[in-house]
Amino acid sequence: MAVIVLDRAPTLTLTTRTVRRGRRAANTAATWVIGVLFILALVPLASLAWTAFSRGLARFDTDFLTNSMRGVVGAGGGALHAVLGTGLITGATIALSVPVGIAAAIYLVEYGRGAFARTVTFLVDVMTGIPSIVAGLFAYTVFSLVLGPGARSGLAGALALSLLMIPNVVRTSEEMLRLVPDDLREAAYALGTPKYRTIGKIVLPTAMSGIVSGVMIGVARIVGETAPLLLVAGYSDAMNYNLFSERMTTLPVFIYQQWKFKGTDVAAYDDRAWTAALMLIAFVLVLNLSSRLVARVFAPKTR
Amino acid sequence: MSTAIDITSLNAYYGSFQAVADVSLTIAPRSITAFIGPSGCGKSTLLRTLNRMHEVIPGARVTGSVSVDGEDVYATGVDPVLVRQRVGMVFQRPNPFPTMSIRDNVLAGVRLQRRRLSRHDGDDVVERSLRAAGLWDEVRDRLGKPGSSLSGGQQQRLCIARAIAIEPDVLLMDEPCSALDPISTLAIEDLMAGLRASYTVVIVTHNMAQAARISDKTAFFTIDGARKPGRLVEYDDTTTVFTSPSQQATADYVAGRFG
Ligand SMILES: Nc1ncnc2c1ncn2[C@@H]1O[C@H](COP(=O)(O)OP(=O)(O)OP(=O)(O)O)[C@@H](O)[C@H]1O
Ligand SMILES: [Mg+2]
């Protein structure tokens, strides 16, 4: 080997150099292509952010944040009822889907064996792919059967959104629980700890940071849902503090309504829609950013 | 406080694979017993059968009996959780709980068992356990820091402190020094010599010199080939095993001649 290399040393250097030059060119080209594609991908995002910002600013005032649309025709009014609705429905969705999702994940990771566990995993996979309108129809049917046809409420909306969020929570929690090393479980067992306490006191706290940030990202996803809510929560102009009865509006539904049913003063409706859009985008952004912060707060400390 | 262990015709399986075959031996209270033997001969498996940690692995099972202080831990109706409270264990890799401070790590066992503990008693347990593990002076002024902020050797001693904080009768140690430097190893060997006074200690080690230094009795295990179960070859006083073993295989192994 050594002899051959020596023998061919000059040619080798030459080819190496050509190869190297070729590789460097390819590298540069690839860098450029990727850079350009990246900027292309950013264009719509930046344009969207800019449009929502510049057009949403017009009505981003105290009136907008303190009024509902009750009795408003034309200019004025606000989205307080939609902010309230978003808060209530999102809260109810979290309350419904987080316990169920985490419980399912704990079952799958810590207890699940055999056919039943495989079935659950399969069903979760199927749920992940449910179109949101179907979730809405499901909630509509459930509530119509129980409360009579056409029953609309914030809770029905929360049920529809839970259907979309549960598989999300199961997936992220499952992943996070599997990341907890078995060493820690064994350490707890070896200290004479029953399994359920090992899960509650060791496994869950260790995985908590990932689970919480996963849940927040899940919330960011469902908070923009419109279609199922149009079906089951309906639309209302006024404040509704009661999740259990009457129609309830959320921000995305508010946007849709403002856009779709413009009165004579078209500009006023457009402005309200854009301001609500701006608020929604800001809320999702805050959720995404704080999920990182929360992950850091809950993460096991190392120093 | 400490306890004799009686192992009778013990077989341990992983599914259909038998890892340990027909082991019988008696371990005296307040002694250090070393398990030695080539890799894969079932030392860890045997050790884990002593506090019913073996069955934690799916498909794993045991036949035969192990009695601790005269009580068969595999008798029907015996709660493995209670067995593990009496027979503590230290693992090969240090595994402090990452979400807990040094103090909370030491108290973890006590708290996980839901024993009531006043703040003052807690301080006592923490100090006593950390002293027994030879770690007190190094961590006394940073008990609130996370357990994972310690060095590997310190973490292992923290795990020993955690294991003895629940006051077991028996302490099982599976290669507790294999991830440590010689100085940390020495620190742990020193502390084991102190533990002998109150605990029955069983240690698995690949370090012949360590087994010879610290143990009273030594059990040598071997394996007759791949996928064969491990078996006990010789069990005797450590000096006898290392100077005049009765089996040729033992003599070869402790002298570093294999096969
Ligand atoms: N979780 C497991 N599942 C299946 N087989 C296992 C498992 N753990 C160990 N075994 C097998 O059991 C046999 C004994 O393993 P064990 O870990 O007890 O050996 P050991 O003597 O401790 O070896 P080492 O000195 O390398 O730690 C080996 O053949 C091993 O492959
Ligand atoms: Mg081992």
Fraction in beta strands of chain B: 25-35%
Helicity of chain B, as a percent range: 25-40%
Q: Nearest-angstrom radius of gyration of chain A?
A: 27 Å
Query: Superfamily at the CATH H level of one domain in chain A?
Result: MetI-like
CATH topology of one domain in chain B: Rossmann fold
Distance between the termini of chain B: 42 Å
Compressed to H and E, one letter per element, the order of chain A equals HHHHHHHHHHHH
* Largest sheet geometry of chain B: 6 strands, mixed
Q: pLDDT average of chain A, as an integer?
A: 89
**Low-confidence sequence ranges of chain A:** 1-6
Task: Estimate percent helicity of chain A.
Answer: over 70%
Give the overall form of chain A: globular
Radius of gyration of chain B: 18 Å
Tally the helices of chain A: 12
Describe the structure.
The complex is a heterodimer of chains A (303) and B (259). In chain A, helix 4 packs antiparallel against helix 9, helix 6 packs across helix 7 (154-179) and helix 11 runs antiparallel to helix 12. In chain A, 77% of the residues lie in helices and 0% in strands. Residues 1-6 of chain A have low confidence and may be disordered. Chain A is mainly α and 303 residues long. Chain A has a domain at 80-248: Orthogonal Bundle (MetI-like fold), CATH 1.10.3720. Chain A has twelve helices and no strands. The radius of gyration of chain A is 27 Å and the shape is globular. The longest helix of chain A has 48 residues, at 9-56. With 259 residues, chain B is α/β, with parallel strands linked by helices. Chain B has a domain at 5-96 and 170-254: Rossmann fold (3-Layer(aba) Sandwich), CATH 3.40.50.300. Chain B is built from ten helices and ten strands. Chain B has helices at residues 43-49, 80-86, 102-112, 119-132, 136-139, 152-165, 182-195, 208-214, 238-243, 248-254, and strands at 5-14, 17-27, 32-36, 60-68, 71-72, 87-90, 170-174, 200-204, 217-223, 230-237. In chain B, the strands form two sheets. Chain B has a six-stranded mixed sheet with strand order 6-7-8-3-9-10, with helices on both faces. In chain B, helix 3 runs parallel beside helix 6 (152-165) and helix 4 packs across helix 6. The radius of gyration of chain B is 18 Å and the shape is globular. The termini of chain B are far apart. The model of chain B has no long low-confidence stretch (mean pLDDT 91). Chain A binds chain B through residues 113, 181, 183-194, 197-198, 201-202, 205-206, 208, 300-303, and chain B through 51, 53, 56, 58, 81-86, 88-89, 91, 93, 95, 97-99, 108-109, 111-114, 145-146, 148-149, 159, 162-163, 166. Bound molecules: adenosine-5'-triphosphate and magnesium ion.
